[in-house]
């Protein structure tokens, strides 16, 4: 009996150690994975290498989207260029047309990234639109931004994506400028040059919408009587959250490009691409909620789709490898009365403009004019 009792105690002790180690391991992995979702990152990633430059042609190696059809920027540490169509593709390399080198020296050996926003971290001057630098008061401190001029009392507030930059809006500025609509491009909490959130973490729209609300107040204080909110990627999560929280604001329309309407979908896709076990996705989500106080259910705009009344234009690319298009398609299916859906293919995440600028701008102009 004494031997059995000792054996039982040792077995229970061993089992307890194994469970404890397992929980610590899973918890640590969940903490690490949650950080990939909510930790701000502003260090540029240059996955491409320029291997040859010949006249108006550049050859690139690396990356997964260098052969995407359409028009793109190519950005490197001290320069950027505008790239046109693919000329040829071989194993591991792609050769594209160089439309123009905007600044810097495009040469072999340069490390770069394909830039869907076209001009890197530039100002509206890069798109040929006059602008003024502004500061938007907020409880966290002044938010930096810029404002283009216009005669219309309806302003556009541009909200960039996760770890992004207001320059994401530059592609569409000429359309709004031609319509006389001022555009307010904003930085929000945890952006470079902007105040940090109290915990220094991204809240995926759960608190960032407050900064957009401050931008709405700024626009109204400077003469805006109507507002169009325009969001890319995570900005497409922040914009509908703003609309839900400001029911009395004069928001006349939403424009959403590759929007995150349900955070569980891109998180699960990212985990799959990284080879993260499926059960760890739920652990990571749970840790995110514990670390930030946000609720994935509250951030799921499909759950609240019936509550929206604002006319909405949605751009979604079928080859988006970052944010699955399913939620955007479902949002349009649920609310065909207010949603105009524009689907493209080949452009990837926030690449609907790049793959077909003429169509994109035509849809944009028609929607903005209808408001």
From TrEMBL:
SUPFAM superfamilies: alpha/beta-Hydrolases
Database matches in InterPro entries: AB_hydrolase_fold, DNA-binding_regulatory, Peptidase_S9_cat
Record keywords, A-Z: Membrane, Transmembrane, Transmembrane helix
Pfam families named in the record: Peptidase_S9 (PF00326)
Gene3D superfamilies, per database record: alpha/beta hydrolase
GO biological process: proteolysis
Superkingdom, natural source: Bacteria
Molecular-function annotations in GO: serine-type peptidase activity
Stretches that traverse the bilayer: 12-33
Domain Peptidase S9 prolyl oligopeptidase catalytic span(s) in chain numbering: 199-333
PANTHER family in UniProt: ALPHA/BETA-HYDROLASE, ALPHA_BETA HYDROLASE FOLD-1 DOMAIN-CONTAINING PROTEIN
Protein name: Prolyl oligopeptidase family serine peptidase
Species: Microbispora oryzae
Lineage of producing organism: Bacteria, Bacillati, Actinomycetota, Actinomycetes, Streptosporangiales
């Amino acid at each position: 009996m004494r031997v059995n009792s000792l054996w039982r105690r040792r077995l229970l002790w061993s089992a307890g150690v194994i469970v404890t180690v397992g929980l610590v391991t899973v918890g640590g992995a969940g903490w690490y994975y949650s950080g990939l979702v909510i930790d701000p990152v502003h260090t540029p990633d240059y996955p491409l290498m320029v291997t040859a430059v010949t006249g108006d042609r550049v050859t690139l190696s690396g990356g997964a989207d260098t052969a995407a059809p359409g028009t793109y920027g190519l950005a490197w540490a001290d320069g950027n260029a505008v790239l046109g169509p693919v000329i040829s593709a071989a194993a591991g390399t792609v050769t594209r047309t160089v439309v123009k080198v905007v600044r810097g020296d495009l040469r072999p050996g340069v490390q770069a990234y394909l830039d869907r926003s076209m001009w890197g971290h530039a100002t509206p001057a890069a798109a040929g639109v006059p602008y003024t630098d502004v500061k938007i008061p907020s409880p966290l401190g002044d938010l930096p931004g810029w404002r283009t001029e216009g005669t219309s009392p309806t302003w556009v507030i541009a909200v960039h994506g996760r770890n992004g930059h207001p320059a994401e809006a530059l592609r569409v500025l000429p359309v709004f400028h031609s319509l006389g609509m001022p555009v307010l491009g904003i930085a929000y909490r945890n952006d470079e040059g902007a105040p940090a959130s109290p915990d220094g973490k991204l809240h995926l729209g759960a608190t960032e919408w407050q900064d957009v609300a401050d931008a709405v107040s700024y626009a109204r204080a400077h003469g805006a009587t109507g507002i169009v909110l325009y969001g890319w990627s995570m900005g497409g999560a922040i914009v509908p959250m703003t609309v839900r929280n400001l029911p009395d604001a004069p928001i006349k329309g939403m424009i959403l490009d590759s929007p995150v309407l349900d955070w569980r979908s891109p998180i699960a896709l990212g985990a799959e691409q990284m080879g993260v076990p499926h059960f760890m996705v739920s652990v990571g989500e749970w840790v995110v909620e514990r670390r930030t106080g946000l609720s994935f259910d509250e951030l799921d705009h499909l759950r609240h789709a019936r509550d929206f009344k604002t006319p909405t234009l949605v751009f979604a690319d079928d080859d988006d490898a970052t944010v699955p298009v399913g939620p955007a398609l479902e949002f349009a299916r649920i609310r065909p009365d207010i949603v105009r859906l524009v689907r493209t293919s080949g452009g990837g995440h926030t690449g609907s403009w790049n793959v077909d600028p003429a169509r994109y701008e035509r849809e944009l102009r028609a929607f903005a004019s209808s408001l």
